[in-house]
Amino acid sequence: ATMPPLLSAMANAGRHGVLVKSAVVMERLGQVDAVALDKTGTLTEGTPRVTDVGPFPGTGLDDEELLLRAAAAEAPSEHPLARAIVTAAREQGLEIRPVVDFGSTPGVGVKATLDGRLVEVGAPARLLRGADDAASARAAALAGELEEGGRTAVLVILDGAPVGVLGIADRLRPDAAATVTSLASLAGTAPVLLTGDNPRAAARLAAEAGIEDVRAGLLPEDKVRAVRELETAGRRVMVVGDGVNDAPALAAAHTGVAMGRAGSDLALETADAVIVRDELATVPAVIALSRRARKLVV
Ligand code: ADP
Ligand code: MG
């Protein structure tokens, strides 16, 4: 017997490296007319590297001690920035000691207790919110310098006092710009970038990828709001993301697509389709497959 078009399209998507979870999803993929892309791990390779380690003067910490504390607090996290920090510490031969009371807030950062001291690591703009002391002002200025250079700045706070910043850089995926172009022509609207990262790093990366509409500094619920706004305007929105922070937007979207290789478990479970082969260019390919199958169905 010949397979129904949507089922054979699913099998075909599988050969392209995309796991489409149902025939209904296979059909919906072709209806998409707006695309929202996450930055870290989606538009970028998702294997960022620590490029700068900057303990603040007067804190008594050197580079290794700063990195060590940040890595210990980040060790339980699956965030790409966390993995970058842990990798940097390991490469320096630092021993990462276990922490207690670990907690993470998507789009913000992590906290944990190491040797009885509270370590917080995360987005400077979020962690410094409301603080107006001199140490916080200096921390914000140093983070701003790193961000100006296209880095993601990560702030380290020890027992409530900012003690240093780390600079982290990630590369655009090689197929990002071409994918943005194909998605724009398939969807009929230019893709938008939704990111929790700082506006400066986001703008720089978006320019490289050919994206003009950039919304930065978003919390998970802000990503959902952005998707709902597009849907209220009559769009059927595809969200492509990888993180725990993307899960609510993946769920709210008309079609949610997760990056499989380094994607968080929550994103993979929530998404309607999973990119297994880790190539962004498979996204326009499956939209095209869906359109072809739907022509055969109707
Ligand atoms: P994106 O939307 O680009 O994938 P996220 O929402 O995951 O980014 O993260 C947004 C910002 O929150 C990061 O740029 C970083 O500043 C901060 N952040 C989130 N998780 C962590 C973490 N585990 N360690 C350090 N910073 C983090
Ligand atoms: Mg991400």
Over all CA atoms, what is the radius of gyration?
20 Å
Biggest β-sheet, characterized?
7 strands, mixed
CATH class of the largest domain: Alpha Beta
Task: Name the CATH superfamily assignment of the largest domain.
Answer: HAD superfamily/HAD-like
Instruction: Give me the side-by-side strand order of the main sheet.
Output: 1-13-12-11-2-9-10
Ligand inventory reads: adenosine-5'-diphosphate, magnesium ion
Low-confidence stretches: none
SSE pattern: HEHEHEHHEEEHHEEHEHEHEHEHEH
Number of domains: 2
Q: How many DSSP H or I helices? A: 13
CATH topology of the largest domain: Rossmann fold
Mean pLDDT: 94
What does this 3D model show about the protein?
This is Metal ABC transporter ATPase. Belongs to the cation transport ATPase (P-type) (TC 3.A.3) family. Type IB subfamily. Keywords: ATP-binding, Cell membrane, Magnesium, Membrane, Metal-binding, Nucleotide-binding, Translocase, Transmembrane, Transmembrane helix. With 298 residues, the protein is α/β, with parallel strands linked by helices. It has two domains: 168 residues, HAD superfamily/HAD-like (Rossmann fold); 121 residues, Calcium-transporting ATPase, cytoplasmic domain N. Helices cover 44% and strands 23% of the residues. It has a seven-stranded mixed beta sheet with strand order 1-13-12-11-2-9-10, sandwiched between helices. It has a six-stranded antiparallel beta sheet with strand order 3-8-7-6-5-4, sandwiched between helices. Helix 1 runs antiparallel to helix 13 and helix 4 crosses helix 5. The chain is elongated and about 70 Å long. The model has no long low-confidence stretch (mean pLDDT 94). The structure holds adenosine-5'-diphosphate and magnesium ion.
